Automatic annotation (TrEMBL):
<dbReference type="InterPro" id="IPR017850">
    <property type="entry name" value="Alkaline_phosphatase_core_sf"/>
</dbReference>
<keyword id="KW-0378">Hydrolase</keyword>
<dbReference type="InterPro" id="IPR000917">
    <property type="entry name" value="Sulfatase_N"/>
</dbReference>
<feature type="domain" description="Sulfatase N-terminal">
    <location>
        <begin position="39"/>
        <end position="460"/>
    </location>
</feature>
<protein>
    <submittedName>
        <fullName>Arylsulfatase</fullName>
    </submittedName>
</protein>
<dbReference type="GO" id="GO:0004065">
    <property type="term" value="F:arylsulfatase activity"/>
</dbReference>
<keyword id="KW-0106">Calcium</keyword>
<comment type="similarity">
    <text>Belongs to the sulfatase family.</text>
</comment>
<dbReference type="InterPro" id="IPR024607">
    <property type="entry name" value="Sulfatase_CS"/>
</dbReference>
<keyword id="KW-0479">Metal-binding</keyword>
<dbReference type="GO" id="GO:0046872">
    <property type="term" value="F:metal ion binding"/>
</dbReference>
<dbReference type="InterPro" id="IPR050738">
    <property type="entry name" value="Sulfatase"/>
</dbReference>
<dbReference type="Pfam" id="PF00884">
    <property type="entry name" value="Sulfatase"/>
</dbReference>
Length: 581
């Protein structure tokens, strides 16, 4: 583990990278929080969860444990991640932009975007010199625990234990079969890589991923092996629970799939409309807000009966995955209650990006280039058959996704989905709950995944000052993206920690975006055709969160300012900007 300079354990507010100190260096979050000097932190991340999947965010899927946490705490309806998984995780754990952290591109994407290979900031793994929240808290006396998806590097020197975690059971890649099919070196299949505490580990084949990750974290919380000197049994914990659900392949326990049978027979457009109306009733969005147009690939009523059954089953399986995730969160919460730690635990929940809208992926993760052709053919034939067999769909014999239309339903009322810098790709469900947090509120101000680290260090009264990040402005008007503690939001003194001149910006796989106040500019292609030209578009989110009306023509000066600010952000963070498209 790296030694962290300038870490001081004091009961004071945080001075984080020259940013948080401006919020006040001596005042406590509240009188109650002073009594909870070192609360536990439970950070839960869902994988590809849609904005409206949880009941507390307008969904119909049964998620009572997460709903109870969300409604008792602070729901964040304007919380931004990045367009895809590992870049979000790098920002979450470091408080930095994904480029300085080494995740300007996902490792897998470097094969497609070869122009990015070898560029600084596009290493595809978390840089070893980057300081994580786990390292800071570990040096402050916290037990640091992790269970689930890592996806920030798979080499021995890139393990979670090299980045501050005392204990970690981790999937190195971005996803895997949820029941373990083809894992642990199975013949003719591409194995997923698991490690525990930096050493090779096996996934218990036949078990379900969400069950396994929750059970392993509960084991760590129980401290069954007290002989392990890495443990600090009398100290608070920072626990990172990173589920791989509901990321493809869509797989879930059979009894949960059966629970949702026939609930989605009306199709994705009906689901999207129903969720949109519930979101209005819950006060999550303004009742006057329009919904974005659904990109209809196939008219639901024109599909054959068998096609509708297959598509409905896809969504039934997805719902079962979310249900299972919620049940496993409940198991962890029950353990905290039994141990007496629940009332001393701050819980943060989020999705890593928008819902996944990609189509069928029968080949991903199940065969490798070294697989003998005859074995590969047999494996793929079996998978393709399982993908269309209602009795096998959702089991380890299938490998399916739920496609663009269900993803658009999950991201209502926003446009597009995972991989895009439009709202549907980057605005995700999130909430924070726990002691000394003024709860039962909905906060609609713009927040960033980068804010989690300074917020947690503020909550835990852990002072950290290492890499200075001086405030930077573009054209003397727009403040560059920075991490900000939610301290004033948690104590109820403010509704926002960003002004109308503070920017939040993105770049991933050559797509760009920037938000300043209610204005948002997005750079990309109109269609999925990679040969089509890219261009900037401008939206006013105050009356168009669906990003359906490009107002750049009548607001050219606004767009110019935002594009200039994005350029300053790119320069500040080492973003690679190729020539004109």
């Amino acid at each position: 583990m790296k030694l962290i300079p300038n870490v001081i354990c004091l009961v004071i507010s945080l001075a984080y990278s020259g940013v948080i100190s401006a919020l006040g260096s001596t005042e406590s979050i509240s009188d109650e929080l002073v009594k909870v000097d070192k609360p536990n932190i439970l950070l839960i991340v869902a994988d590809d969860l849609g904005f409206s999947d949880l009941g507390a965010f307008g969904g119909e899927i049964e998620t009572p444990n997460l709903d109870a946490l969300a409604t008792s705490g602070v729901r964040l309806t304007n919380f931004y991640a990045t367009p895809s998984c590992s870049p979000t995780r790098s920002m979450l754990l470091t408080g930095q932009d994904n480029h300085p952290a080494g995740m300007g591109a996902m490792a897998e994407a470097l094969q497609t975007f070869s122009i990015l290979k070898g560029k600084p900031g596009y290493e595809g793994y978390l840089k070893p010199e980057t300081t994580t929240i786990a390292e800071v808290l570990s040096n402050a006396g916290y037990r640091t625990l992790m269970s689930g998806k890592w996806h920030l590097g798979s080499q021995p020197n890139q393990q979670p234990t090299e980045h501050g975690f005392d204990r970690a059971f981790a999937l190195m890649q971005g996803g895997a079969d949820h029941f373990g099919a083809g894992q642990n070196g199975g013949p003719a299949l591409q194995p997923a890589t698991y490690t525990e505490n930096g050493r090779p580990a096996e996934f218990p084949v036949g078990s379900y991923s969400s069950d396994v990750y929750a059970e392993r974290l509960i084991d760590y919380l129980n401290l069954e092996d007290k002989s392990d000197k890495s443990d600090k049994p009398d100290q608070p914990f920072f626990a990172y629970l990173a589920f791989t659900a509901p990321h493809w392949p869509l797989q879930a326990p059979a009894e949960l799939i059966e629970k949702y049978k026939d609930r989605y027979n009306a199709g994705p457009e009906a689901l999207r409309s129903a969720r949109f109306e519930r979101m209005k009733r819950l006060g999550l969005i303004d009742s006057a807000v329009p919904i974005s147009s659904l990109v209809v690939l196939d008219d639901w009523q024109k599909l054959s009966e068998q096609q509708r059954k297959v598509e409905s089953r896809n969504m039934e399986i997805y719902a079962a995955m979310v249900d299972s995730l919620d049940q496993n969160v409940g198991r962890v919460l029950d353990q905290l209650r039994v141990s007496g730690e629940y009332d001393n635990t701050v819980i943060i929940f989020m999705s890593d990006n928008g819902a996944e809208g990609i189509g069928a992926r029968p080949l991903i993760g199940r065969t490798s280039n070294s697989t003998p052709p005859q074995h590969k053919a047999a494996v793929l034939a079996a998978i393709n058959a399982g993908n269309l067999d209602l009795s096998k769909m959702g089991t380890g014999e299938s490998f399916i996704t739920y496609g663009s239309q269900w993803a658009q339903a999950a991201m209502a009322p926003f446009r597009r989905s995972k991989g895009d810098t439009e709202e549907g790709g980057v605005r995700v469900p999130a909430f924070i709950s726990g002691p000394a947090i003024k709860g039962q509120r909905i906060i609609s101000s713009a927040l960033s995944v980068r804010d989690v680290m300074p917020t947690v260090l503020d909550i835990t009264h852990t002072a950290y000052s290492d890499v200075s990040e001086a405030p930077v402005t573009a054209a003397g008007v727009i403040s560059m993206p920075s991490a900000k503690s939610w301290k004033p939001i948690l104590d109820g003194s403010l509704e926002s920690v960003r002004s109308d001149t503070d920017a939040i910006a993105w770049e991933l796989h050559l797509k760009r975006g920037i938000r300043v106040g209610d204005w948002k500019a997005v750079y990309g292609k109109d269609t999925g055709d990679r040969s089509s030209p890219s261009s900037w578009k401008l939206y006013n989110l105050s009356d168009d969160i669906a990003e359906s009306n490009d107002v750049s023509a009548e607001n050219s000066q606004v767009l110019e300012r935002l594009v200039a600010a994005w350029g300053a952000y790119a320069k500040q963070n080492g973003v690679f900007v190729p020539g004109p498209p």
